[in-house]
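Our working data are protein records whose layout never changes between entries. The record below serves as our worked example for the rest of this section:
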Amino acid sequence: MIADGLMQALPNQLQRILQGYEHILPELVIAAWILVSIVGDLFLVGGNEKSARSWRYLIAQGGLILALLLAYQRMKHGTEGFVAFRMLWVNPGANAINCLILAIGFVIIGMNQYQQKSFSFEEKIGFFSILLGSLLTSLSIHFLSIFLSIELMSLGTYLLVGLRKDKEGVRASLPYMLFGMGTSAMLLYGLSLIYGLTGTMLILDSAFSRGLATADPYFAGMALAMVGTGILFKMSWVPFHPWSPDVMESLSAGWMSWISTAPKIAVAWLGIRLVHFVPVSMQVVIAVLAILTLLVGNLGALSQTNAKRLVAYSSIAHGGFLAMAWLMPAEQGVDNLLFYSLVYSASTILVFYILDELETTQYQIDDMSNWAGFGQAYPVRALALFIGFIALIGLPPAGTFLAKVNYFSQLWEKYQMTQSNPILALLIIAILMTAVSIYYYLRIPYFMYFKKGEAIHPADIFKNNWIYLLLGGGIIACMLFPTLIYSIWKV
């Protein structure tokens, strides 16, 4: 028989377990939608592929719209609270980050549906796995939930990367998976060391800060370095970047954009929290790694003659820019990260989708000549692509100009306060690499407008123009109305 005391305590225990779950309704909707997608696909097997694809898009969009509405409501209400035994922390910064990630996912799925791109069951599960992992990563303040969230993101990425079965797909996916498993093991081992040093995995616990502050600095540094390995792998920071160009090159525009944005934004926000709660100063290490990431990303892009590979290298450099927010005060870091992420995501989607329209029968190491005459043949689309490249550089009238100016000004203030030479070096290198990026980003526009040739593109030249112009207009609007943009996530 069950003791009367246990039965009486059961309601209180259940209430304690479920306490705060009303704060994470968007994440619960996405988790439920993964199950809905799995069950729903059972009824689509063996049917017409076009009909099955339409139903998959409809189911996915339904979940995204519901989660996005709940996330926006949570963001505007400034909801705060702890969930799941203080493993998740709902706060204004995380609310805004998750709203942005959901919006990016909605745009990508909407564009894929409008352009009638394939959407298999595996692609749908991979997309939602990355989405849920990103949302949970931004809320996690316990190393166990951080590890599980990052691994959920990784599993979705493995699934999307492994869809291609040709030579290029295998060449990209196998090293990525091996690299990912290695960094996951190092992350887990680092977490076990931190638990041994502090006796807790909760980063808000005073024992966490006290344990790291009083531990042997070399031992604590080794533990933090192992944790950083797993985090920086998702950011494709140097020296954990070799997987990025091959993986990005092998993916379609939608999944290339998705992997380049959502995981990086979530991990960049996670880094802001970790840097400000870890009692060990890491600004020198962050500055040095950011410098190396900017150098490798930009200088690597200089020698690329394949358009997709060029932007893949440049995305490494943008990962370095995103994580510069780790060196800023928390509030300014969150605002700058959100603004930069918004404009960077719109620019990435715009550029990747237009580049993906290049139709070739086989892989080309040098495909620059295929863009010759594109400006004359498709003037509207060429203008949109040009705006996208200007935005990735960070020149006016694109909103990334303001985003980079904010980053540079914050780094200068940081240098004035600390007189840290690595911070000054990072600022100088970031400005120089922005100038270097002008050369490789404008290489394709040069071929589009100044070289004659037959552009190899779909016969349909008007269908997607309005989408590209809308994205381009949004990028410019971020420059013209920054106060309005900032007010979106301000409570």
